[in-house]
Structures are given as structure tokens and as C-alpha cells.
Amino acid sequence: MAKKLPLKQRYAALTRDVHWDPSYVAAEKVFPHTTFEGIKIHDWSKWEDPFRLTVDAYHKYQAEKDKRLYAVLDGFAQSQGHLTLSDGRYLNAMKLFLQGVTPLEYASHRLFADLSRNFNGPGPRFAALCQSIDELRHTQTEIHTLSNYNKYYPGFHNWREMHDRVWYLSVPKSFFDDALAAGPFESLIAISFSFEYLLTNLLFVPFMSAASFNGDMPSMTFGFSAQSDESRHMTLGLESIKFLLEQDEGNVPIIQDWIDKWFWRGYRVTALVAAMLDYMLPRKVMSWKEAFELYFEEQMLNGLFPDLAYYGIRPPRHVEQAIAEKDLVSHQVYWTLYQFGFAAAFTTTVPEPSEMEWLAQQYPDSFDKHYRPLWNKAKRIQDGGDRFFFQGLPELCQVCQIPMTFTEPGDPTRIAQRASVFDGERYNLCSDGCQWIFDREPEKYRQAWLPVHQIYQGNCGGPSVPEVLEWYGITDGDNGEYLGSVEHRHWQQWHAQQAEQTAPMGS
């Protein structure tokens, strides 16, 4: 009988020992993409995988998690669990998650599959392979988790096409397209470190806590199932950056440049999460401001970056502007989504009075002064039997692709507007951070696929709103005002029926 190897030797035998050095062709021809970015690697064997997973252990572990997840999905579907949610409005947060985040999981699967082929060393290749499989599994389980709602509510049916076409989804899509178009080391820093390590807790932890708090057991179970993978991804992100920094001092300024760029790109993507946390959850878990302070300022700025200073790495450029915006960003983004809700694949509405009181408590320096008056005006229009929608198309930032909604640092009453001229053409940017990114690589960002520009150029089904919505794949009931919408009427009708069935005899 074959002798069972200790765990460390077994890991080495099944991962590192399957590597060989090519002898009949130069290494540069086998791995042609790991030199042009300027990163110097002297010893690939120094890469340490802290989890030392083998393929068989990986699949056994994931299969156990899948069994538990699908048992919860079956139980939720059989017991009409969608009626136990806190409110029909909650589903708008899940639509945004399905349309915006799930396709990113698949994009991440593609990116890490590419890295698992192109890195020279067996350690990072195997780590990238495991993460690639993780991301594909997350794509599948997220789709299965949310597919139950597609039986009952609009807005869940066409997320894949919407991700490629709808205006607000170009924000996360452009982020990953940007990373996929970068070199292997830059894309590793972009996703594994700047997004997975610095910012992923802002996405997953509040989202899954919110699912639990609003009665969404499937999404909560998926979140716990994915969280152990995300923790592994975060650790790999940290190991990646330490490995690159320790290999050569010349790598430090290159990596600092990438951290500066990808922090701001990732931070702008989380603006959608900010709006979701503060406005789209009927039962609030924590405000965006609280989440940002806990998961970014406390854990990353005060916990991680003092350690990275040892290598010569400082906090990201423009981080002070992100901190200053924590009182404003969720209000500015949700107000934009509300105004252009006729072209979104979810519904929006004016916050209820109790929600406005909660927002005032969470944002004592900004909500009552700058944003409550906007909602009061929208409510007066609504009470008069109308609904405020912005008539026109917004100007988009050339880098993050968010409409020009953010304000000048220190002045929440004035829209920030930056512009750069390249090759005789003017490009508009929403912030100092996006302008700095554009000016580094104008040849790349001048090619951005901007949804509004595409409409004007006649590439989105036609010039009228109905034609564009049809091209988006948005059908009647997916969009607009929540009150009186298809999902609102269904929610009320089904709960009225449920109340009748459970009422005592003779009542």
C-alpha cells in the first residue's frame, strides 16, 4: 500500500512537482507576458500558498458547501419563502446584485484562468487556477440562488444582456474590462489586492448581513458559502503583493502606481453598493458611512497600510477624497438612479418617513441640509399624481462611467467637473481621481464604450426611449416607480391572499 504523505509533501507533490522547466524552447516564449510591465521576479519558488489546497481537497470542501446551499434553496422554494421577505422593495437590491456582480464573477473566472496559464511559477499558477474555479462556482450559485425570484418578480430575466448594455451596469463592467485588458501583474493587483483585499468586505459582508436581516435565507446562505472563498482570495491578494514587493525594489513604484489607480477604480464601483445599503434595503443593517469606516478606514488604512509601509508602500492616492465623500456618495448615487429609473432594470421610490429619519441620524451633517429637500420635493410631485424623471441623458465620466453626480471636494452644492484634452479632443471626468487615471493612459480610456455616447451614435436600437429600452432587454414592469409597479401589486395581492388563508374561521 502506498505510504500516505504528510500534508505539506502531498501538496508539493500534487502542485509544485508537476512543474517542469522547458528545455526545447525558451521560457520567454512559453510565458511571453510577464516581462513587459517592468516587474522583476528573481525566484518564483518564493511564492507561498497559505492554504496549500490540492485539487481533491478543494473539490471535496466545495461539494460539502454546495450540498448545504442547495438544501436551503429547495426548502425556501417549497415553502414560498419569497413571501417572507421584509418587503417587495428588497428585491431591487438583489436585481442590482444579479445584474452588476454576478457577471463580474464570470469575468474574474476568465481573468484567473488566463493567469493560471501565463505565470511562470507553479505556485501562483495553481493559486490562480483555484480562484478561477471559485469564481465560476460563484457565478453558478448566485444565478441558482436568485433564480427562484425570477418566477414571481420582474427584473431578473435578462441580467446577462443587460450587463453588456444598460448604462449603470457599464460602471462595474468597465472596471473588469479594464483589468482584463491590463498585463498579468497589473490585473493581479487590480483584482486580488485592490478589489478583493481592500474593498470586497464593503460588498459582501453588508450585502449578506442585509439578506439575513431582510428574510432572504438563500442569499444569506450563498454569502456564507462564498465568504470562505473570499477570505482565501483576500489572503492570496496580500500574499501576491508581498511576493512582488520582496522580489525586487524596482517593483515598488510600479505597484504603488497600480494601487493608486485601482483603489480609485474599485472605490467608484462600490458607489452602487453605497446606494443599495442606504436606500434599497427596507430593514437597514448599517449605513455606507459605518461600513466604510469599519471595513476600509479601520481595517485597511489603519491596519494594513502601516505594515505595507515597511516595503515603501503608502496609502492610495486620493484616499482623502474618498473619506470626505462618505457622507455624500450614497445620496448622490441613489438620487441619480431615482431620476433615471425609467431606464433601469429595477424600481425606485421615495424613502419612507422612517427611512428618512434613519438617514438623518446616520448622516447628521449632510442629509437634512442637502438631500431631504430633494426627497420632499419628489414626494410632493408623487402626491400630486406624477413622478419625477429626468428628461434627457446624463453626461458620463470617461473613466468610471458614472453620470456626473459627484460634487466638488468640500462643496456638496457644486457638481465636480474635470476635463483633459488628448489628441485634440476633450474628455470629461468626474473627479481628480478619474482625471489622474485618464491622464496616465489616455490611449486606453479614449476607447471607453460610453452608453450615452453609443445612444447618440445610433448603436442602441434607435433614438427614442422605448427603442433603447427594448435594446436593453428591459420589459414593461422591470423599471420606473416601485409604488404601483407589477412587483408592488403582486406583493400586496399575494400577502392579502395569505392573510385570508391564515385568518381564524369566522373572522
Automatic annotation (TrEMBL):
Q: What is its EC number?
A: 1.14.13.227
Listed Pfam families? Phenol_Hydrox, YHS
Q: Which reaction does it catalyse?
A: propane + NADH + O2 + H(+) = propan-2-ol + NAD(+) + H2O
Single GO molecular-function term? monooxygenase activity
Which terms are listed as keywords in the entry?
A: Monooxygenase, Oxidoreductase
- Residue ranges occupied by any YHS domain in the UniProt entry: 407-449
Q: Which InterPro entries match?
A: Ferritin-like_SF (IPR009078), Phenol_Hydrox (IPR003430), RNR-like (IPR012348), YHS_dom (IPR007029)
What's the protein called, per UniProt?
propane 2-monooxygenase
Q: Which organism is it from?
A: Amycolatopsis acidiphila
Q: What is the lineage of its organism?
A: Bacteria, Bacillati, Actinomycetota, Actinomycetes, Pseudonocardiales
